[in-house]
Amino acid sequence: MPVGAMMAKDSFMVTAGGKTAPGPLFVMEKMWKGFNEESGNWKYTMVMPDGSVFGTTGGKGSANVQFCADCHSAVDDQDHLYFLPKEYRTTSN
Ligand code: HEC
User: Fold this and answer.
1) Which of 19, 21, 35, 61 could form a disulfide with 15 if both were Cys (CB 3.0 to 4.6 A apart)?
2) Which residue CA neighbors atom 6 of ligand 1 most closely?
3) Structural domain boundaries enclosing 43
4) How confident is the model at residue 86, as a pLDDT?
5) Does the residue 68 lie in any domain?
6) Quick one: which atom of ligand 1 is closest to the CA of 81?
7) In angstroms, rounded to a whole number, what is the distance separating the alpha carbons of residues 17 and 25?
8) What residue ranges of the chain have pLDDT lower than 50?
9) Is residue 88 classed as helix, strand or coil in its secondary structure?
10) The pTM is what?
11) Would you list the DSSP string of 18-63?
12) Pair 6, 27: CB distance under 8 Å
């Protein structure tokens, strides 16, 4: 992905009683080379349903979103992205 690319994924929760509620918003932003090599220079941000930010890579609550980078690094051979729709995929950077 080029620098500045952003990916956002919404989510919802289902309780044991079958009720649903909004879940966190998951955001990835491609930063400049050297921002954070370990995360593939992706900035991970988790926004809670009330609008508060749980954490953002390299900023407030950075440790809270380390697990994002850890799991997404399993697919570092495809720019740390999992199931991006085929029409948005490229074979080069
Ligand atoms: C245990 C592994 C795991 C963790 C932890 C994780 N993700 Fe993901 N993420 C996935 C998988 C698998 C997908 C693709 C399936 C889907 O969209 O649900 C995905 C998809 C995404 C996408 C859509 C782009 C893509 O790669 O397909 C974004 C954006 C995203 N995650 C952000 C985050 C953020 C932000 C965090 C931390 C708050 C996080 N993820 C934590 C496994 C993980």
Assistant:
1) 19
2) 68
3) 6-76
4) 84
5) yes
6) 26
7) 23
8) 93
9) helix
10) 0.93
11) S-EEE--EEEEEE--TTS-GGGTTEEEEEE-TTS-EEEETTSTTGG
12) yes
Q: Is residue 69 in contact with ligand 1, taking CB distance under 6 Å?
A: no
**Owner of token pair 């697990």:** 67
For residue 63, tell me if it sits in a domain. Answer: yes
- The pLDDT assigned to 74 comes to 97
Q: What is the pLDDT of residue 92?
A: 54
Ligand 1 atom at minimum distance from 74 CA: 2
CA distance 61 to 84: 26
Answer yes or no: is 16 within a domain. yes
User: Which residue out of 76, 83, 86, 87 has the highest number of ligand 1 atoms within 8 Å of its CB and is therefore the one to mutate?
Assistant: 83
How confident is the model at residue 87, as a pLDDT?
A: 86
Is residue 86 in some structural domain? no
Q: How many domains does the chain have?
A: 1
Query: Which pLDDT value is given to residue 71?
Result: 98
The pLDDT score that the predictor gives to residue 62 is: 97
